[in-house]
Amino acid sequence: MTQSTTSEPEPSEGLKSFGEVLKSFRKRAGLTQEALAPKIGYSAHFVGSVEQGRRFPPRRLVDNCETELDAFGTLKAAAKPLTRRKGLASWFRVWADHEREAITLYTYESRLIPGLLQTEAYARALFADQLPPLKDEEIDARLAAREERQQLLYERPNTAYSFILEEHVLLRRTGGEEVTRELVGHLIELAGRRNIELQIMPVVREHHAGLHGPVQLLETEDNRWFAYAEGQESGQFISDPKVVSVLQMRYARMRSQALSFDDSLSLLRQMRGA
Fold first, then answer.
1. For 157, phi and psi rounded to 5 degrees?
2. What span, in angstroms and rounded, lies between the C-alpha atoms of 207 and 244?
3. Closest by alpha carbon to 261, among 160, 119, 164?
4. What is the mean pLDDT of the chain?
5. Measured distance CA(63)–CA(86) in Å, rounded
6. pLDDT at residue number 62
7. Cα Rg for the chain, rounded, in angstroms?
8. 3-class SS shares of the chain: helix, strand, coil, % to 5
9. What pTM was estimated for this model as a whole?
10. Neighbours of 48 (CB within 10 A)
11. What is the dihedral of CA 215, 165, 187, 173, to 10 degrees?
12. In this structure, are residues 258 and 199 in contact, taking their beta carbons and an 8 Å threshold?
């Protein structure tokens, strides 16, 4: 999937209302979208999408606009009743909000390719196999939500992303050979971005610090660390510094146990050519 394939949701009334309020305060301040964007740390395109009601306004954007536009608390009040559109599991939304603001994001996955790295064909294959079966509109909503999340890789070039993937996840060929070949090519393309590091954990590895299961870690702009662990029908947001420290220790060990970035990229190229 490339950046040009972005699919934005249809505006909801709540998002459109917030967008109109934001536009009103922006114009009151005598600012264009292009002038406001660098002041609040977002692109002009993102500001425009929020004003059109097509993007959910992150908490940092609301806070920064509130301060920059001297909005008397109006923007915060307008954002309070908003809820994200369908497509994200309820237990994942707290993490997704933090993910949008992260300056560092670490992901170890042993079951499937992480959502941020998936192609549309791979994600569709996963959703099509879910039980109980999903309706077509539910699959479309989840695909749209996943694609929106993936824009973080492009919209936040200063965020450092690290992914550790188990080799066997690629060997499984979820969706078939063509889907897997496209997926591998997509991973190679993403690995070419300066802020993304991919590492493969080999199938054969005598010592493995990640046997407790998948985990995600992130660092916020004020340098706080949080973690997230997901089960089949639930997710756990972890803020206890002692627990987060243990998970950071495990992730650091896994980075040393996995193939290096160059060796991982070489393996992916071999898989693509197989």
1. -65, -15
2. 21
3. 164
4. 89
5. 24
6. 92
7. 20
8. 55, 10, 35
9. 0.70
10. 16
11. -120
12. yes
